[in-house]
Amino acid sequence: MTMNLDLSIRSKVILTLGVPATCLLLYWLLRNQDEEDDDEDQQRVTTSRQTVIEVMVPSKAVGPLIGRQGANIKKLQNQTGTMICFRDDSKRDSGEDRVLVIRGSTDQAQEAELLVRKTINEMPTLLTEEIQVPVKALGRIIGRNGDSIRQISRSSNARVYIDRAREEPRDITKKVSIIGSREQIDIAKSLIEEKVDEEEIFRAKAAVIAANREQRNKQASGSIRRTGHVLTNAEKHSNDQEGIPTNPSSPQKHVSLTTHVKEWPNKEYIEVYVSSVADPQHFWVQIISTNAIHLDELVQRMSSLYNTDHYKNLSDDQYLVGDFVAALYEQDNSWYRARVMGIEGSQLDLYFLDYGDSGYSHISNVRLLRDDFLLLPFQAVQCCLAQVKAKGEDWTEDDVNHFEDITYAAKWKVLMAKRIGTKCEGDGETTQIVQLIDTNSPVDIHVSHEMVQSGFAEWDIK
Fold first, then answer.
1. CATH topology of domain 269-459
2. How high is the mean pLDDT in each 10-residue block of the chain (462 residues)?
3. Domain residue ranges of the chain, discontinuous segments joined by +
4. pLDDT of residue 26
5. Please, are residues 76 and 64 in contact by the beta-carbon 8 Å criterion?
6. What is the rounded distance in angstroms from the CA atom of residue 134 to the CA atom of residue 113?
């Protein structure tokens, strides 16, 4: 009986102590499980914080938004710390609107979205403009293997398309479509116009040379003196009378300019082109004749000689005002006849005898002119436009620019000239007083009348 009582007491004690301990242990286990669950939930929230934003991009904005080789997209990604790419890659060349996907934190994704939308909104409206260009200029616009037209597109950032429809024999123009902003289209048009002008100048020069060749063929074969041929005794005597040296081995410094300028032909109207302009009362023309071909040959001979190593290393720093020299024009690496008009240190003020223009050249690019290069008369003839004068004390820049435009200065375009008199300048040179007529249009344009009617000159009542 006593043992049963003791067992009952021990059981009660164990139960009394065990139940709370078990409850405590169970509580501790359940609490740890809850904390682990909370940690897992917390990780899930952190992971799910990456935001995905989709932006619909118009097809016309896809290319500029991507940029060359993806440069613009890469810049946006680096700036915002997001991942940006287009969905539906299969629609790349379909011309449809595309979905841009932005991935990142909420703040980063929203910043990237704002920048993308701003870029789209600020993108200039694309325009399409069609122009007509001469068929004869297409080759120069397109270039070899399309090099020129690709360069025009790159320089203007506009897309340029030439109508591929088959040309008809009567077609004189071709349609060119330009796509871009207003500024891009204007740049592309100006570049195309430059190519058209280049082609016109090339064809005009070719026409002048062809006309000269035709005129030369009509003349007796013995009546033309070729530059550089062996002179007969009669020719030498004639040259001596005119002050033209005949020794081809020595450089020439001084020659009479007034006796060596090309003479005005004894005709009522002659063909000329305006080579240089100071103002309407001081400009220079080249007369279309066989001498134009001789001048081309002379420039080639001079360039071949003075570009040799011997002459490149041969320099003379003892030039005087009035010397006749050969001067290098670096843009085409050719040498031209010139006269020294002034000296400023190592710079020489030169007057180019066959074109009438002036410019400065470093002394290292100048050589004394060999006397055989003086056999051909100087081709630039100084002229004054007849019957007009400046509206003010002097000609303005606008006056000169308009005169250059309507006379096609330095563009090898033929005008008709009629001499109505001469006058002697202060330096003793003779100036031809001429009327100029543009016969390139269906209606002849008298340059003097055009200058007055356009408000760039007034009549000289004297």
1. OB fold (Dihydrolipoamide Acetyltransferase, E2P) (2.40.50)
2. 53 59 62 50 45 87 81 90 82 74 91 90 84 89 89 90 71 86 92 88 66 45 30 38 39 50 85 93 89 84 90 76 91 91 92 91 91 92 95 94 94 91 80 94 94 96 76
3. 51-122, 127-211, 269-459
4. 62
5. no
6. 47
From residue 148, give the alpha-carbon distance in Å to each of 82, 198, 268, 390, 449.
40, 13, 44, 42, 40
| Helix segments in 282-378, DSSP class H | 291-306, 309-312
**Two tokens, residue 12:** 């009660």
Query: 51-122: CATH homologous superfamily?
Result: K Homology domain, type 1 (3.30.1370.10)
Give the Cα-Cα-Cα angle 149, 153, 157 (nearest 5 degrees): 175
pLDDT the model gives residue 283: 96
**Contact 231/246 with Cβ under 8 angstroms?**
yes
Which residue, among 157, 149, 147, has the nearest Cα to 133 in the 3D structure?
149
With H, G, I as helix, E, B as strand and everything else as coil, classify residue 245.
Answer: coil
> 127-211 has which fold?
Ribosomal Protein S8; Chain: A, domain 1 (3.30.1370)
Q: What are the tokens at 110?
A: 């929203």
